[in-house]
Design brief:
single chain; about 350 residues; alpha/beta; Trna Endonuclease, Chain: A, domain 1; 2 domains; seven-stranded mixed sheet; 7 strands
């Protein structure tokens, strides 16, 4: 008789997780194929308009009529006059670009491409954002936040701050360096100053988790406020992830304000506990990332001396103005109040 798998066994969970991964992969491939087909149509229509030398002004009548007739034939394909002009811009912008940039924009959703057309000035800048969006699966909102934060220029200016070369084997150190970013855009959190309300803080921690998972290729979520018990004491890591490529646990600590040297000691201690209590024998050493509002590379370099655990320090950027922050806080606190009223056990 074949082996039976009770519903709560690790064997069954392994099969279930593998099935979910297969389905998600297939759905993603189908979505990409549909998107690539749509982008191909837009590219060819843009090429047609470009080769026919249709320009704004005298060509407006042609485009308007074309829009009406195409929408009659294909009402769900977005053939508005504005979109037709954007298709021409799309072709004109990238038809002479290098093949790497062409391949990137060809697989991005149309909304992403419209942002790149509107917000980037050079092919190098467009390629930087397009490549990141493809590799990390950025939504259009995240792409917009990164463009607003001028990540293309800021990443060139800021050196990466870590001790990976000293703390890890060479190949693993290179992979960890690729994994770490100079700065992370947390504008979607809506924070420009410390927020003290306990209920709101929990919501923000959860949003940070979502952001890091979305940006970090190869990451899987382990837990937030992850509890480690040792020597009759409890310690809590803000966010604990696992990186499949590195085969390492990755601890993330968020700090409101500038970098302080004492953050290194705390993270080093956490990594020691993770390696002792959580790391599996076939896994690589745990890695720490400290996210601060601001850091001085030289200060970090000095602070990292003599520490043996691999630790990286990165900045985060916050974009929302004060007015939007205040509105967001009021909405979140109202939601929390309503949630308490609707939950009898919280009365």
């Amino acid at each position: 008789m074949g082996k039976r798998f009770p519903h709560d066994t690790s064997e069954y969970l392994s099969i279930f997780n593998a099935a979910v991964d297969e389905i998600k992969t297939a759905r993603l491939q189908i979505a990409r194929q549909i998107n690539a087909t749509a982008i191909g149509i837009y590219w060819n229509l843009g090429k047609l308009l470009s080769e026919k030398k249709i320009e704004k002004g005298y060509g407006a009548g042609v485009v308007n009529r074309l829009s009406v007739d195409l929408k009659a034939q294909f009402p769900d394909m977005g053939f508005s006059p504005r979109n037709l002009w954007n298709m021409k811009r799309f072709y004109d912008r990238y038809s002479a670009a290098n093949s790497k940039l062409q391949r990137c924009v060809a697989v991005l959703p149309w909304r992403h491409n419209l942002l790149l057309l509107e917000k980037t000035a050079t092919d190098n800048e467009a390629f930087y954002y397009a490549q990141k969006a493809v590799e990390l699966g950025w939504t259009s909102d995240i792409l917009l936040n990164y463009i607003k934060a001028d990540s293309y220029h800021n990443e060139k200016k800021l050196p990466k701050s870590h001790n990976f070369k000293e703390a890890l084997p060479e190949i693993l150190a290179e992979q960890a360096n690729d994994m770490l970013k100079n700065s992370y855009n947390l504008g979607f959190l809506g924070i420009t100053q410390p927020v003290r309300e306990k209920e709101l803080e929990q919501r923000l921690v959860e949003k940070i988790k979502q952001f890091v998972l979305e940006l970090g290729k190869g990451f899987t979520f382990v837990g937030n406020q992850y509890k480690i018990e040792y020597n009759h004491k409890e310690y809590f890591v803000d966010i604990l992830l696992y990186h499949r490529g590195l085969r390492s646990l990755v601890a993330i600590e968020l700090k409101i304000g500038s970098f302080k040297p004492e953050y290194i000691g705390k993270m080093n201690f956490y990594l020691g506990l993770l390696d002792k209590l959580e790391k599996q024998p076939d896994e690589n050493p745990s890695i720490g990332i400290i996210l601060c509002a601001d850091k001085d590379h030289l200060d970090v370099e000095i602070a990292l001396q003599n520490f043996t655990k691999p630790i990286g320090i990165a900045e985060y950027r916050l974009l929302l103005p004060t007015e939007e922050l205040e509105a967001m806080i009021m909405i979140e606190l109202k939601k929390e109040t309503e949630h308490k009223k609707s939950s009898p056990h919280m009365q």
